[in-house]
Design goal:
Number of strands: 35
Distance between the termini: 76 Å
Oligomer: single chain
Helix content: 25-40%
CATH topology of the largest domain: BirA Bifunctional Protein, domain 2
Strand content: 25-35%
Mean pLDDT: 90
Radius of gyration: 30 Å
Low-confidence stretches: 141-151
Number of domains: 4
Length: 660
Amino acid sequence: MADGFELFTDRSVVAMRVNGELKDLATQVTTDDTVEAVSIDSPDGLNILRHSAAHVLAQAVQSINPDAKLGIGPPITDGFYYDFDVAETFTPEDLKALDKAMDRIIRQGQRFVRRVVTDEEARAELANEPYKLELIGLKGGATDGDSVEGEDNESVEVGGAELTIYDNVDPKTGETLWKDLCRGPHLPNTRMIGNGAALTRVAAAYWRGSEKNTQLQRIYGTAWPTKDELRAYQTRMEEAAKRDHRKLGAEMDLFSFPDEIGSGLAVFHPRGGIIRSEIENYLRGQLLENGYELVNTPHITKGHLFEISQHLNWYREGMFPPMHLDEVTDADGHVTRQGADYYLKPMNCPMHNLIFRARGRSYRELPLRLAEFGTVYRYEKSGTLSGLTRVRGLTQDDAHVYVTPEQVKDEVASQLRFVLETLRGYGLDDFYLELSTKDPEKYVGSDEVWEEATETLRQVGLESGLELVPDPGGAAFYGPKISVQARDAIGRTWQLSTVQLDFNQPELFELRYTAADGSRQQPVMIHRALLGSVERFFAILLEHYAGAFPVWLAPMQVVGIPVAEQYDDYLQDVVARLRKRGVRAEVDASDDRMQKKIRNATKAKVPFQLIVGEEDRAAGTVSFRFRDGTQLNGIEVEAAIERITASIASHEQVLTAWTA
């Protein structure tokens, strides 16, 4: 028998994987066990580091406020959080005090010690923690060995086969200084958190993610293996804050979320509408060039359609409640004709299936590529809404491709090439792929069909030459998918396009085509969303470019700035010629001084400022001023127009002067 402390001497090892399961380093192992080291900089190691930091945060909170009741504290992307029930909300000053209390606990080097407990023992020890008692009850309702996963990461507390408590033990006296219900694993001791942890913000959160429950206070933090990595992360976050699409959207007058309309429902203002239109127009052109046919479907449908597609079985909670319509009653209130439940559509695919089924189809028509900018509605919980990246009304650039079984692989590969080429047209070019496979608890169809579909996607992903990362259990209920993950200008990763294989909906909708031999065959369906949603993609591009869009996307492409009022008419003529060429241009004829006009245009991130004084008017020229403050003087007007229109047509990102 040995434990991880004896097996691994590398100080970067913080846990181990024993026969495939994550375990604390103190776990006893035998020579028959398969043991792998888990380093602190691995994904699992980072989660363990961050979850350990969450425990230290909770200990710090209760050291200052013993009446605080504990919720849960899971690791999340780049950090952790912990929820608390406290009488008064946390303030920035509280966070400073908690940072200091955490630092003291970290420096003590308290040991994380795991104990297996019975239901009764756990209830006795945590009698004053009502939320922990509720989680113990959840565990008691699960069958032996089941994981408990509810609305809000409860499995960090009571997942796995055993109920366990972690004690924070004083390394000198052996005294238990604090304890928490937890599945683990944890770092060997708090000192290993080092100086790479920091608290970031406070938010409100409902217990177990349900608005029906108590609202708690959530403290967010981040933790990294080194202080340098922490500082690098903080720098990235500062840059991200500057690029926040919600902030830029307000500053640039692009969109808003009026209370009168409702949460998660955006309106696009004129300048935002222009950007959105350009995003859609470019993709629409690419679709037509690549053999797609454009369709259009209504926003509302009878519920029976979603019974056929299985969405009401698998996706009901994400749908808005039904509207009962078409019922007819007589004068006495008796129903003479039954009504029907109608739903706002959360997906376009069932309606596209009806278009395919509307008439007989031949193998000669396949692949049949149907595309739509279809607005759908999803009932996202209010706590999950976030600007344009998580909304309740969204427009999907949705496409469904119907193919013969023999065409599947070539069409998926073609779709992936189309996706990558189109994304590059928007200025994104750093990608990797993710392969989402079956959720064993949530799928329709046979295992054999799923295996075939998954293997096809795996082959296409590998042949693309891009990195292919597994996403176990991440598929939708109807089939596996490949998703394109794109990195933006500051290195953040966004899931964009998805290509999903579906052998099930064609069967549910009884879709058939006539094969070459005259037989009736079932097509395979490919779901393809390139942008994901127009709203979310708008936000991603806004942050990627920090509002300084390439010329073709910029809401205002040219602003004319006269040195003095007498040059307005000359510039108005130049702007009129630009507008005839489709350029978005205007003259700043305000009473502001020239320097303020330049500042205003620069702040609005206009790509080109055309400045005109006496010398330009006399020579029939204009002077360019670019976003970075550089200038190019004395350009003949027609040449200037040609340069501007060429920049727009080529999707060029103009930040500085062209080479003369």
